[in-house]
Each structure stands twice: as C-alpha cells, then as structure tokens.
User: Fold this.
Amino acid sequence: MSIKKKVELSLPKDYKNKKFILFIICPQKGNSIGGSDAHVLDLSCDLLKHSEYTPLVLFPHNERYRDRLKENDIPYIFTHGCRRKIQIVRCIKKMPKQINIVCIHSHQYDANYLTQELIMFGGKTWKNIPVVMTCHGWIENSLKLRIMTYFDFKSYKYSNTLIAVSKKDEKRLLMKIPSKTIRYIPNGVRERIKYSSEQIKNIKKKYGIGEDKIVVSYIGRLSPEKRIDLVIEAANKVCKKNNKIDFLIAGNGSDLTKMNRLIEKYKLSNNVHYVGFVKEIDEIESITDIILITSDTEGTPRALIETMQYGAIPVCTNVGGINDILGDNIGFKCLPNNVESISNGILKATALDDKSKKQMRNSITKLAKDEFSIRKMSEKIIEVYKEIEG
Assistant:
C-alpha cells in the first residue's frame, strides 16, 4: 500500500480481506500510557480474538505505545512525522480506497478533533464512514481544559454514536445533545496475571517493601486533576498513626516535581515508594492491599478495576463513575479535595478485622471479574459496530 514516508504503517498480509475498525487515539507524550490508551489496547486485543473486526490503531506519537501494539500483533498507523492534524489527514487521505474501514472509533479530545478534521477535509470517502466516539470523562480544572471540553462537544456532531463510560457522563450527554445515540458502556479490563504467594513476596522485595507492610497504591498519571498532593498529604497523616503502612506510587506526569517536594517536606522517603512508569503493572496491582484514588474527576478508572481483580480494597473520592463501580457496600468513598476524609478512609480499611476484610475482598474480586471484564465491554461495543454498519 502506498503511504507517505511520515507515517509508519503495520498491516496484516491479508489486509484486503479484513473489516477494519480504525481506532484514533492520541497517547500522552513522553512515552507514558494513559487509561484511554490502555483501553484501546485491551479492546483491540479482544477484537482480534473474538470478533469479525480487525483493529487498526492510528496515533501520532509515543514509541512505547507503538511497541505495545507490536507485541500484541495489532495493526497500526504511527503518524510520527506529522506535526499537525491536517498533515495526518493528507497522509492517509486515500486509505479508505485501499482498505475496508467500516467504522472510525475515536477516544478523547485530540483524537476527536482529528476525527473531525478527517471527515471535514479527507474527502467524500471518509465522510461515508460511520463514527463512534467514546467519552472517557472531561477534565475542566483550568480555562484551557474548559475550552478543550467545549470543542470536544462540538466534535460530537460528526459521530453516529457516543459511548459514555460512566452514568454521570451519560446523563450530561443526554442533556446536552439529546438527538444523538448514546450508550452507557463502562470500562472493562483484561484478566490479570495470577501470582503465587512466593512470587508476591519477591515482587514486594523488588520494590523495596517489607513482607509485613500494608501497601496503599496510587496508580495513574501525576497530573493536576488526579491530586497526587492529596496522596502525599494523606500518607503524612496515616503513617503517623500506623507505621505498618507503605505507599506505592506508579505513573508519571507534570506533577512529579510537586510530589517529590511534598515527600521531602514531610520526610516520607521511607514510607512512600515512587516507581515511575511500570510496564509490568500487574506486579504493582498484585501487592496492593488498598487502591487509592484521590481525583477531582474520573470516568471509570481502569486502575481501580484492575486492582479490584486482586481483591484490593478501594479508598476513592466519590467522583465521576466511582459510584457506578463501588455502589453502596464496596470499599470506602471519600469527599473530594478533603485529606481528612481520604486518610480516614485508609485507616478504616486497615482497621477491618480478618473476617470482614476477607468478605469484602471476595466481593470486590467477584464484582470486578463479573461486571467489568474486557469481554463484557467488548461484546457491547461490537453490538454498536454492527448497528452502525447496518
């Protein structure tokens, strides 16, 4: 297939016989992989195994993400040589005439903007391809992000179907654009790797955590809306009351410097273990006793569902889709932007007696596996593809 040199293309040899879903995603810069990026990766793997559709992932940057796609034999278009969205459009303008793209499925702000430009400036062939957009939640804690959300909603006019990952987001979409077809489909995650007790012991050792320590994990971006400052503030309060608790932080982002300053301020270097971006994230999840989410806003957080498969007890700010997952009887929900509420939630989780803890962990694991599996999510999304394909 002819395509411009600014684009790296990976297709199966029999691509002319395939029905492609073109996933459009804009991973984070700096080679980190966010929730919506991992969502597309897991969904693509499931489509390859269980459906008539073949994923084709279009993304503009992030070599680490490209490598993850390669590892899983997922076809992709890596537009690393294009600085602007219109350059991407020009590079792939003729693609629908060469391969059978039956649906475009975009995820988050920049991906939705790119989808809009493809339809507006890509020519008649692109205009005839149906579009699905998944709304993973909106971040609106600055003027810039509120403007981005405004234009995100403007891009929805080019979609046939919108998918909301939380009931709160579904409600907002129904109020703002009632004429659109909107589906509520919460995130699902792949089944996690099972580790033996000996392996768990070795993983703790690998990350510098004692065998007898209770592990409170934060897994995700270090960005303003995630409130890593509240994680460290809570650690400062909790560790003074229980010296058996260690905090484990996995991820990277713009608030790394802020986090390190707070760790230094409170002299928490022995209690807070920062491990950066971890490819083998199952290892972190498997040793987690309490999964901590301190965000001001959320969709359906994947890290929460993933660690719940291991029985980790959730302590989460009650925002976005958190209540859709936890309901009234699972884990501990906290007030947003309230360090007292968060630290009290952690201490309540650690204070559970053995019987209560076992019952809660069993309920947590069952809920995650039964209701938030990648298969369950994928089946619902495949139904959407079939509906819009006709």
